Amino acid sequence: MTRVIIPDDGPPVMRASDAYRTLAERLSVGYFDKLPSSEIDLIDRIREAEVVINIRSSSRFTESVFAQSKQLRLLSLWGTGTDNVDLAAAAGHGVTVTNTPGVAATSIAEHCLALLLATARRIPQADSQVREGGWPRGGGVQMHGKTLGVIGLGAIGRRFARLGAAIGMRVITWTMHPDPALGFEHVPLDQLYRDSDAISIHLRLSDETRGMIGAPAFALMKPSVILINTARGLIVDEAALLQALTETRIAGAGLDVFDTEPLPAGHPLTKLSNVVMTPHSAGITPEALEAGLQMAVDNVFNFLAGRPSHVVIPPRSASPGAP
Q: Looking at 93, 111, 158, 232, which residue is catalytic?
């Protein structure tokens, strides 16, 4: 029976799911509900696995991990991001990599809207003051009639753009591969920075996007702009973001992702009143959770049946034109 390892379900989400029960009924499953303590620990956990289902992006699948996992044929990622995987190394060692695109798009887009409105209307601050006996009046701004800049038009970016339009915002977009058929107004990136009253990031982390929103970008933005990031923390230059927020060169930020996660105690972002933060939880609703875990499991079943689905990268020997 095919040996499947889930090495990093910490904190646990997979074990209680219907998807896990389906998996365990059909295949031999090894399960760990705590994160690996090191790369060596990860290797020890998956050394005999033919299939790995990766739950947490903090588990990094490097050249060394693949080299020492001789039995591994499939790495099924729960989630869309692949920045924790050396994809070239996976291909070189004959490992197929799959992911779960689109299943959390609605959940994350709704979370973006919640972060935007909470930041714009200063809801956390008002809530805190009311609990302490205060009665603050005003201080928020409405988004109807404002301009929303959406950076990246994958499933999440498209969904959030439509939500922005639904509350009466003018939506402008920038993406690496514009498609007029999507029906959005596409503008140069510098123009998006200058014209937007709110900017939301929907890009994958890569060498091209790492740190792309830094001091030069913040210098172009309106002082009234709100930045929303539910993608990856490292896409934004954190030092430049902190400076822009501290000096009120931008009005605020709604953040679900950070350079270091969990966010360290006493981090400077935690001391700023113009920031609303959530713990990388935008895509974690019961509906999105179960759908994503089931897709990760279905990707395993489909691979074993010879019909790989949602393939990010095939093993090199299966690549077009490969010998």
A: 232
**Same domain flag for 65 and 116:** no
Nearest-angstrom CA–CA distance, 299 and 75: 10
Q: Are residues 258 and 301 in the same domain?
A: no
pTM of the model as a whole: 0.86
Residues sharing a CB contact under 8 Å with residue 21, sequence separation 6 or more, in sequence order: none
Residue 7 reports pLDDT greater than 70: yes
**Residue 203 sits in the same domain as residue 290:** no
Of these residues, 45, 93, 111, 280, which one is catalytic? 280
pLDDT of residue 139: 85
Tell me how many domains the chain contains: 2
> From the candidates 261, 267, 290, 316, which is the catalytic residue?
261
Tokens (6 digits) for 41: 């620990």
91 lies in the same domain as 115: no
Q: Are residues 233 and 125 in the same domain?
A: yes
**93 catalytic residue (yes or no):** no
- Does 267 participate in catalysis according to the annotation? no
- Using alpha carbons only, what angle is made at residue 175 by residues 173 and 179, rounded to the nearest 5 degrees? 85
Active site residue 232: yes
Q: What is the pLDDT of residues 8-39, one digit of tens each?
A: 999 899 999 999 999 999 999 999 999 999 99
User: Does position 89 have pLDDT exceeding 70, yes or no?
Assistant: yes
